[in-house]
Amino acid sequence: MEDLRERLLDFVDWVVDRHYDLKDFLSEHPSVKRWLIEGVCCVAAGILVGVITFNVLNHEKKSLAVTEENAAAPVAEETTGEEDIAAGSAVEGTTDDYSDVVIEVVDPGDYVGDLANWSNEQIAAAISERASYLEGNKYWNAVQSYWESKGISGDARYCKYLADTANTVYSAEDFQGLAPEVIHIIKNEMYARHGYSFKNPDLYNYFMGQIWYSPSVMPADFSEKTFTETEVKNLDLLNSLDTM
InterPro entries annotated for this entry (predicted)? Predict the structure, then answer.
């Protein structure tokens, strides 16, 4: 113990000596002291400017073209007006038969994005994991009927986009005969494809039931500049047709 104590005291003496050595050095060379202070100030100022610039560029609020009831926010937040509808509420008119409606609105092709590379087992597991989101969902019955009218069933219903709004410019005739719920979903699908997170619980739950959907963008961070010229034209059209 005595040896350890002596070593500790020697170390303390060494630190004190270095302190005075540095103090003497700076006293003899005042310009070095000034340079050190100026350097530290420059680094601190640079970091502060960088942080402020980053916040300004990345948190500028953008206006959205969607209606207020469809603005994005966590599903747990309180909502007003039409957004007070519970996720499990039923919707009238979603059991109609659309099999006699001849339209060419959707041609999704293969499964979207990375889903094209998933195995059947992976897809089935993902669908099962999200199945609870679609139970009693306001839009799901109408969308299922629409898929049936296109001859699409099974896992494909959860792996495809309803419309190719990113590449095809549609006209009002293309959506003639579609249920209001389907038109509403096609419009909001354009936002969902860009990671838009919905405040409306029915919309949020519907898209969470689609295994391609990954909510990642909150309202303050979403910009309509995200949309291509084709998407903007389709969004304007769908806004004029959407009655919900």
Answer: YARHG_dom, YARHG_sf
The per-residue pLDDT for range 45-86, each reduced to its tens digit, is 778 666 565 554 444 433 344 444 444 433 433 333 333 333
Tokens describing residue 235 = 């969004």
Residues 45 and 76 in one domain: no
Q: What is the pLDDT of residues 13-33, one digit of tens each?
A: 777 777 777 777 767 777 766
Give the phi and the psi of residue 137 in degrees, each rounded to 5: -65, 145
Helix axes 180-192, 201-208, angle to 10 degrees: 70
Question: pTM surpassing 0.70?
Answer: no
In this structure, what token pair is assigned to residue 81?
A: 């007006």
Residue 164 burial by Cβ neighbours in a 10 Å radius (0-12, 13-18, 19+): middle
Task: Compute the distance between CA of residue 23 and CA of residue 192 in angstroms, rounded to an integer.
Answer: 63
Same domain (yes/no): 116, 201 = yes
210's tokens: 């689609």
Distance of alpha carbon 32 from alpha carbon 26, whole angstroms: 7
Neighbour count for residue 14 (Cβ, 10 Å): 10
Residues above pLDDT 70, as percent of the chain? 71
What is the token pair recorded at 33? 């002291």
Same domain, 76 and 171: yes
Under DSSP, the state recorded for 224 is G
Cα–Cα distance, 82 to 87 (Å, whole number)? 12
Is 147 in contact with 178 (CB distance < 8 Å)? no
